[in-house]
Amino acid sequence: MNLDFIAERSFIFNILYFCLFNLPIIFTFLLMTLITRLFISFSLLFILSTCYAGEGMWLPQLLKLLNEKEMKSMGMKISAEDIYSINKGSLKDAIVHFGGFCTSEVISSNGLILTNHHCGFEAIQSHSSVENNFIKNGFWAKNHKEELPNAGLTATFIDYIDDVTSKVLNGVTANMSPIERQSKIDKNLSEVRKSYTLETYQEVIIRPFFDGNQYFAFVTTIYKDVRLVGAPPEFIGKFGSDTDNWVWPRHTGDFSLFRIYAGKNNMPADYSEDNVPYVPKHFLPVSMDGISEGDFTMVFGFPGRTNQYLPSSAIKQVVNTLNPAKIAIRETSLKIMDKYMRSDVSTKIKYAAKYATIANYWKKWIGESLGLKSTNAIQKNWIMKLIFKKIDDG
Question: Which position among 54, 62, 157, 394 has the lowest Cβ density within 10 Å, counted as fewest Cβ atoms?
Fold first, then answer.
């Protein structure tokens, strides 16, 4: 819920921050070389003697080249090829972009997918009424025929990922103005998209990474028949509601189940009663063995954007200007909606998904601002910039 400005705030970082905040700023520069050397030495010692969680944006197609050795040293028993492969079924074929806004996982050979309750909430709400309130009471299909279709809901799989940086940045020079640069990039993007030969059910999506310094093309297959299979009642699926949202630890059954349907050839098809459950290239088997201390764990999915490398001036703008405005607008909207939702059950059902979406971001930005302030993120980011500038200058 908070912006990540530092990969992992280790013990040595805390020592540095304490020292720097308690010394006059003039001495910060005089001590920078010594501190940098101490920082590097202590950090290496700390890393070698401590188990820690790695983090960052690890791209699946680059795991073999960049991350596999480190992941195996942490206890991973599978290979990078088992995670991302274009030649065989792999983990990437079990990780689904649900609706274009959430991650889900294929957990059976019959196309059953697991996602969060809040991700499936709009679908649950759309099938609810005063007489059949699936939000309040939950829903469980007892067979395939009882599974409920959802117009417009999609399940997207990644077929493969290409690095198209050189093509997108072709002809882009350092002396271009921002407008000229973006205009050239937009023209290149159009040409790159045209270079792909796609099936009717495929799509190519090109996304910038690292503030536009690298570009990747994602060729995807999109299934358009996704049906609701089950959801817990709201006292489980939304336990704690907005109070617990974006808070850890959290005790809620935040899950819902859907199933992907396909044509008789197992390829994407518009909704039809004749469609059959999708047979995946790979699915995640559910283990009943539980977990043990120190088991290797990783997260694989479709995250939103990260602003990890924002400068301190931009963080200051987030804390003092942007977040307060966004929070205030949503607070007003929520109060208006809450007034009418409390007075009528039918209105409450109709606005439930919209209310939940607004409340989700409202709580996120409240927590984000709280986290940035309580950790002195602006000052720490500024100090980190000084340290890295000193390292870069030699």
Answer: 394
